[in-house]
Amino acid sequence: MKAKILIAIAALAAAPAIGFCQDVNKLIKQDDVERVIKTLSADDMQGRGTFTPGIEKAAKFIESEFKAAGLKPMAGAPGYRQTFSQTRITPVNPKVIFDGTAVPDDKVTIMTGSAFNWKSDSTVSVVQLTDEKTYRKQLGEAMRSGKNLVVIFDTSMADLFKRVRDRATKGSISSGRQSKPVVYVLGTPAPKAFEASCEVKSEELPLSNVVGIIPGKTKPDEYVVFGGHYDHLGILKPMEGDSIANGADDDASGTTAVITLAKYYKQLNNNARTLVFVAFTAEEIGGFGSQYFSKQLDPDKVVTLFNIEMIGKPAKFGENSAFITGFERSDFGTILQKNLEGTAFKFYPDPYPEQNLFYRSDNATLAALGVPAHTISTDQIPTDKFYHTVKDEYATLDVNNITATIRAIALSSRSIVAGKDTPTRIPKLAK
């Protein structure tokens, strides 16, 4: 595999834009890519869980990389931190009783922003999920009913239930909107009668994006954003003696790309447009970092967002390839591919439309505001057995793939950075 990647890099160097290709191979070094991602995914980062010492350590590391690269803070900011606070609400003392029998604690999880106490009545709907392929659609339809929900997962969906439980037990961030509680139960027949109750604990806690910029030379009021989230899941239930969800691919790989691209463009120092490099926080618990970021600048001045998420393994299309979510929504991908003419690398449309990836990462907020904001990824997510597990470690990554993808992003973004190409806008979502 390594030999093939090296051949691809040689092909980049033989492309018509030989000066750019030589720059990208010289300035984006694989040993530095390896150093950064190893640091971010190390055990001492404790899985970079939101509101933990581990994510604070990661933020300090990213700040040090931005400072060493010579990036500036955003206008008016005292440093690279973009700090805000959110209310975390954690379920406490959940209890579920089906037909007079208490459901075991390890078979129950609850997502709620407020305390409740239910008994069987017409305001509560019981939904049974039996197929992981269709559960999103079925659950979405149930939620739109406006009723309180008890959701029963079939035993075949135990892994999915575990992911929901891991997320729910960490609490949720209050959005200010009152959402209905959802009770999730694993492997229990639908009851004739039930009771469910839960208390909550509320805490006001700080969150921080890490943001650095390179001011534009001739178009400083037009912004090109490179982003990726640096948070992950933190500490999970032990698996084979390991409880740290290192998040090496998700998304230390994307954060490494952001840091590496910042160094690359700072060394070139010829960007017409202002370049913004952001490590988003709290993606895993609702995308709150990108939501806050989108309010700190005029979205109409944001030319595009390169959101980089999970580039640690080859894509389903083979080596020297990646996919772009929402490819059909703008000409972003077409521009990128044009800039890669003569190279071995190719960008493809998202091959997993059923996963709804376009609205599952940090590009979603700016995209809703009309920005051609897309995610670049190589992950084969339907079959990725390491996704959201303690097995997402550095040892599972293909650093050659990461380096080749970062170099391809650097080459493919150059006409946008230079102010020559402007991706078409995406229709704003109605509020």
Question: Could you characterize what this model shows?
Answer:
- This protein has 2 domains: 2-72 and 215-417, Aminopeptidase (3-Layer(aba) Sandwich), CATH 3.40.630.10; 88-203, no CATH class.
- It is built from 12 helices and 17 strands.
- The protein has helices at 2-13, 18-27, 30-40, 53-69, 135-143, 158-169, 248-268, 288-293, 332-338, 363-368, 399-412, 414-417; strands spanning 81-98, 101-102, 108-111, 116-119, 124-129, 148-153, 172-173, 182-186, 194-214, 219-229, 234-239, 242-245, 273-280, 302-308, 321-324, 346-349, 373-377.
- Helix 7 packs across helix 11.
- It is elongated and about 70 Å long.
- It starts with a helix and ends in a 14-residue tail after the last helix.
- Mean pLDDT is 91; it is low at 1-16.
Quick structural gist:
With 431 residues, the protein is an alpha/beta fold.
